[in-house]
Structure formats: C-alpha cells, structure tokens
Amino acid sequence: MTLTAAPEAHAPPVPDLAERVGWLGLLGAFRRNTLEAFPRACLDAPVVTIPLPGGRMVLLSTPAGARHVLLSAADDFERLPAGRRVLGPIAGRGLVLADGEAWRHQRRVLAPAFTPRTLPLMLRFVARSAEDSCRRLEAGLGASVDLRGEMQRVALDIATTSMFSLETGPLGAEIRDLISGYLGRLGRPTVADFLLPPGWPTPSSPRRALFRRRWLATVRAVLAARRAQGQGQGQGQGQGQGTRHDAPRDLFDLLDAAHGDAPGGLLADEIGTLIVAGHETTASTLFWACTLLARAPAVQDALAAEAAGLDLTEAGAADSLPHLRLARAVAQEALRLYPPVYVIARRAAQASTVEGVTIPAGSIVMIPTWILHRNPRWWDRPAAFDPGRFLDRPEPDRFLYLPFGAGPRICIGAQLALAEATLVLARLMRDFCLALDGDRPVLPVATTTVRPDHVPRFHLARRAG
After folding, report:
1. Closest CA to 337 of 411, 300, 389
2. Residues whose CB is less than 8 angstroms from the CB of residue 142 and which lie 6 or more positions away in sequence, other chains included
3. What is the pLDDT of residue 248?
4. CB atoms within 10 A of CB 356
5. C-alpha 435: how far from its chain's center?
6. Distance CA 210, CA 205 (A)
7. Can you tell me the distance from the alpha carbon of 316 to that of 323, in angstroms, rounded to the nearest whole number?
8. Distance between CA 235 and CA 229 in Å, rounded?
9. 398 and 406 in contact (C-beta within 8 Å)?
C-alpha cells in the first residue's frame, strides 16, 4: 500500500527547543518538561556540551553518536544513579535496571517468551482485549470519551493476559492508578536526583519508599491470583487447547521457574517491571496515534479500508497482521513523533571519543531520541504526521529511529508492542471514526515518559458499514 502525505498533513504542536540552556535550567526542566530543555544547537551540532558542577553533560544527536554509546562502546557507559532513583521504586531489580551478569541472566530467562514463534499466541490475547475495548466504546457512543484511559485499560489487559494468562479484575484499576500516579508525580526527576551521590536520600525518597511498599503489595496480589489458577495453565489452556505437555508455558511460568526461590523479591520486581513496560509503551503509542488520527480523517478511512476484509478475531489475528501495513506504519509514525524512550541517559565509566570530541570519565551522556526523530537533516518534513514515510521506503537507520532503544539493551518486547498497537488500531478504526472534542492543542510533556499536558476528550461515531 502506498500512502502519499497530503500537502495539508498536519504537524502536531510541540514545545519549542531551547535557545540557550544552563545546567540549573536544564535540570529544572527535567522535572517540568524535558522537551523544553533540549538545545536547538542539537539539530546542527553532533555534540553539545553543558557544564555541570563538578562535571559536564554531553548531548549526542547523531546516529554515529548513538551507535557508539549503545553498541560499539556500550560497556564504557553505565546507567545513571538518577535513573535508579527514579525507576527503582517501580522496577526494583527487574530487567530494566539490572546490570552485568544479572542482566544477562534475566535477559536469557525472558528471551523464549519474546521469540517470533510466540507472537501468534500473544496476538490471540491482543485480539480479545481489542474486541472487549470496542464493545466498551460501542456502549458509550454519544458521549465524549477518555481514550487515554481506555487505551491504558486495553494495554494493561493485553500485558496481563498475554504474558501471565491472568484477568486482573478489580486489581486492574488499582494497577493503572498506581502506574499513572507514580509516573506523573514521583517519577519526575529532580535536581537532587542528578546532583546527590548514589545512596544519598533525596527529598522524594520517603514518598518513593512508601509507593514501593504499596506497589509491591499490589504485584504480590497479582502473583497470588496467578498461582491460585494453578501451574501449567498458561497460554495453551487459555486458548481452549487443553493442558498438553508440549503447550507453550506463559511468561509467569518461565519467571517463576527462574526466580521463584530468589531472595529479595526478584520475581515480583521482574513481573512488576514487565507490567509497567508493557502497559506504558502500548498505551502511550495508542493514545498518541489516536490524537494524530483525530486530525487526519483520510488516514482513518484508509485504515478502515485496509482492515475491512481481514479477520481480526482471536483465530485470525496472527494471519492478518502482515496485511496491516498502514496500521503498522501509523504506529511507527506515532512512535517517531512521540517516542516512549525520548532520551537515553548514561554515565561515561571511562574516557571516550565520540564524533571527534573527548568525553571525560564521569560525564553524563544523553542521546535525545526526540531530536533524532525530528531532525530535518534526516527526515523529510520531520514535524508532520506522515505514516507514508514507513511505507514502500527504505527502513531508517537503526540508530536514527530509536523508539525502543538499540544495541544489546534494546527493549525485549519491541516487536510485540508494535504488533499490539498495529492490531488494536486496525480494530478501532474499522469500527469507529474519531475526532477530538474541542480545539485545545494536546502538548507533549516529557518527564519519565511522554505524556499529554491534559487528558483530552474524543468523540466516536460508528463507521458506516
């Protein structure tokens, strides 16, 4: 399918890049909206250095710089203490914060659950969750809709049913509220998170510790509910296939076998991390895609036409996925314009030379994905919503398009997340036309993730035919 962007293809509003940034203003903006702090110089200069007290921050805004940090010299760059402070209460010792041999072990444990052969099994649950979502939306036609909340709900349903064969029931609303509340408040980095040495408490530490206790209690309730279902029920039985010995085990069984007896609650941390990652990435992609599509009715019509003759039920979802090329391109374009990983931050463990510039050991190194995805040096009309750029054109450089990171630590569930978004968008657009309620622009705010500055309302109408 070929989709040519119309001349009127809209460019969604975003904050202006900063003309000049001092260290205090930069760190302060990390709490308000990091997108306001990225220097405009990053569009032209491959390396931008900002002095910090006792060190420096280095922004690398080219594919070559990203390749160096994430692949070629990945062992020379380590995670920031600030990242551990911010994500620790919700991720603990899970994969996203693990390092060294612990990370390699955890990655090996998870790998079998995210291979291409498991995708058809996962997609059955995606199709079921998408169907349930469309039924809820159908029941609410005539009133304005909070699509952000609905996309969070469907994303959590997908994460828990596909990975853990579990309907969260009453726990679902609590999990969504905890994740949203944390990322919107305590998950915002502070100046103290960056400046205080590792191990030192910050003003946010007591409240983050309180959140962690509540979060772990909720995740342990999920584990208890899953164990109550019995062992070996997994995905095979969830699809009515009985309890064959060769039926694929679900992710819970893999993790329980690997970490069930590990001290310190590693199993709860790993499952909590996967719930957050699966929920937030998919929900964010779907919400921003809906916001973009609301201003692009012609693309909505094209999506509906693409999906019209396909079987998007549990039985047909896997076979239909390769034919949803436009839906996939819309998801990819939403990820380009609103990448969940909008900046990748590391600390230089030793001195390194990147793009001809020496980076001293101890420097904070940042790869602003937001800038890479919107730089006119590499993208035609980079601010415009144009899913056609992902159709019938060469794939972008893998260190230029980084919605899930790159290198050894690329998101292990990247392909599943993209497939989920593709299938849900196709199902939604086949049934409904959508429009934003009012003219107020929806501005992205980046703290821990890229979120809207307010929760917009949508109007949905049943699509003819």
Report:
1. 389
2. none
3. 41
4. 7
5. 24
6. 9
7. 12
8. 12
9. yes
Measured between alpha carbons, how far is 170 from 381 in angstroms, rounded to an integer? 45
What does each C-alpha distance from 168 to 79, 152, 160, 222, 266 come to in angstroms? 32, 13, 7, 7, 21
Q: What is the Cα–Cα distance from 235 to 141, expressed in whole angstroms?
A: 33
Distance of CA 6 to the CA centre of its chain: 28
- Cα(283)–Cα(420) distance, rounded to whole angstroms? 10
Q: Three-state DSSP class for 371?
A: helix
Residue 452: its H or E element:
strand 450-452
User: Side by side, which strands form the sheet with 55-60?
Assistant: 47-52, 55-60, 364-367, 344-348, 77-78
Q: Which two tokens stand for residue 157?
A: 């349903």
Report the chain's C-alpha Rg in angstroms: 22
> In this structure, how many other beta carbons lie within 10 angstroms of the beta carbon of residue 216?
17
Closest Cα partner for 327 from 310, 313, 314, 341? 310
**187-207 pLDDT tens trace:** 888 878 887 888 899 999 999
Give the pTM.
0.91
What the block records as the tokens of 303 is 């999506």
Return d(Cα 170, Cα 52) in angstroms, integer.
Answer: 47
Q: Maximum CA pair distance of the chain?
A: 65
H or E segment to which residue 354 belongs? strand 352-354
Pick out the chain residues at pLDDT < 70. Answer: 1-8, 27, 230-249, 262-264, 465
